[in-house]
Amino acid sequence: MSTSEQERLKGFLRVNSGQTLYAGRPYKLLLIANPKGGVGKSSLAVLLAAFSGLEKLKFADTDPQQSTKLAFEAMFGQVATDNSQLVIDSFADLEKVVRGSAGQNKQTILVDTSAGLSPHEVATVRVASLLLVPVSSSSVELNAARKFISSLQENNYPVPILIVPNKINDNSDLLKIISVFRALPCMLASPIPYDRRIEKLLADQHFPGELANLREAAFPLIRSINKAIKSPYLPDSKLRQID
User: Fold this and answer.
1) Structure confidence at residue 206 (pLDDT)
2) pLDDT tens, 157-166?
3) Strands 108-112 and 57-61
4) Ordered structural domains, the chain, with CATH
């Protein structure tokens, strides 16, 4: 890390337990990224918001399509969504956000990113608590995600990575994902099963009365995230299933 980066990140700390702190105050910043589109980045954001509610969430949607923002508006209304949205010009702005919110009411900062984001761009977000990488069982998507994660780790990216299997039909899909990432020092979340009802809600963005279904679907993801954040970062390990 250069001297200028060290100065810029002064006060930020990742302790051995996995917790992230700024000036001694805890914070949680979840970054969702995958170089491919259609793998479920916005779906993860929707599940997280359905579980926690926007009152405990600040979010930035850096995807030009604004899928996450539109889904939140359908779920919670425009006013609540606007109150929770962070407008950032670059990932560097996230450091300012953390400085202003660390230690406040167990609030989570959630950042959904666009497809095509390069490892170099993701690597600039060094203050994230956890990088979530949703993956399906598509060979093309898996290979792209593996190269993406490998590139990050070759450049000593300090943020723990949680691979989130998404749209899983059966154990063969999960075994395929495990085989692709088994040599990488990442964590593996509980898979999000394919649920036709949930997929329809996400596709139609019609949520009234259906948040209970989304909360139920989100529970394994929340459990995996909480375990991952509390897990020590082991850069020399191999894939770890944390559930």
Assistant:
1) 67
2) 989 999 999 8
3) parallel
4) 3-241 (3.40.50.300)
